[in-house]
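[retry 2/3] MFS transporter: previous attempt timed out, resubmitting with same input.
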Amino acid sequence: MAGGKSARLDYAQTFSIGFGMLAVASAWAMVNAFVPLKLKELALPTVAVGIVMGIDNLCGFTIQPLCGLLSDRVRTRWGRRIPFALFAIPPAALCLMLISMAPDAPLTIAAVIAYAVLMATCRAPIVALMPDVTASPLRTRANGVINFMGSIGNVLALGGGSLLYRRFGMSVAFAAGSLIMVAALAALASLVREPAAHRTRPGERARLPFVSWRELRASVMPRLDLDAEARRSFMLIVAVLFLYTMGGNAIETYFTLYAVHDLGLDPATAGGDLVWFAAGGLLFAIPAGIVGGRMGRRNTLGLGLSVAICMLTPMPWIGEASLIPCLAFVFGAVYMLVFVNALPWIAELGGDEHVGAMTAYYYLATCAGAAISPTLFGLIQQSTGEYRWMFLYAAAGFAMALACMPFITRGEADGARAPLPSLPRPLAVKPAAKAAVAGL
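[retry 2/3] MFS transporter: success.
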């Protein structure tokens, strides 16, 4: 495919790049839905479950930034990003199957760690593929397409995985997830051709650069040449990413345990209910990018967070099994307003020269929130004995993120300043009102 940046979005190329996100999203959807249930069955306390489920996010502090930095410098005949996916996804698919078949807690945890390390190796390079070939004003719309493909992966994994889990058990469900990962990788490698500048010429040797410890530290927190206003916006955007990820990750990690232990659902039904969240995201991923392009990224995120707060706040008191599918669908659509616009928002501050650096900060912020949150809420759950308080916990994280946003003036397309109308404020919600529930 053409590698140059066009004034119009190349939908065929963007959908093809989305196969990488499909592979990543489908695998993590199954892990987040069913591995906490297995760990509880193996008699691990909730805090320990949170620690294990946060391991992949600890990799975000080291492995993801390192691979993002390496992928900026690597040159091979396949390009600079795709080789990381070719290296990591096949063995990660094997680890996914091992997670389901492991007979005890130590082997299960070891398989989760290996899987997390491998997936961290390829995630930042896959995400950086889109900005490599997409002009700045089109990145929000392109990210909507990428997340649309990720939502397809979620639907395939959660819908098909829940059916297979109910009928054949966890091993068959995870084997199917592994096949989805490998098939998506094959589509990515065969359909996407990176720009010529990122590929070696025939007969030229691949360039695999060495990275020193100093460079690794710099890749985790790259130095940025920003003016005072841009630096303030950058720090606040990082805070927003951290806070909303902390809130959302608690639901992502503990939703199936909430559904099983608080609502009395069986594990397959609990995982199946998450399909409605994925379906909402699937249908609204592309429109969310269009809305972000018209309203501005900051205001679109503010709208999504405001609606999410209103939906989550009453859930501890009104949560019922019969409401979950409908409310999860609505929340999945709303959350796309946040998720689709977040990466283009921070990437814009770095310009084309520092997409990898801004991607590193994006993962630093989101992985920090996601690494801390499962353990923190695990402590809350163990003290209260109930999972339903995760909704108030998430709403609090979203509210703190929302409070930072009026002071952010950079991050719109082509460096344009965000307009400064008042952001929508969370509405007062009565405990008796109906709301939505889901996890990222």
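[retry 2/3] MFS transporter: DSSP finds 16 helices and no strands in the chain.
[retry 2/3] clearing retry counter.
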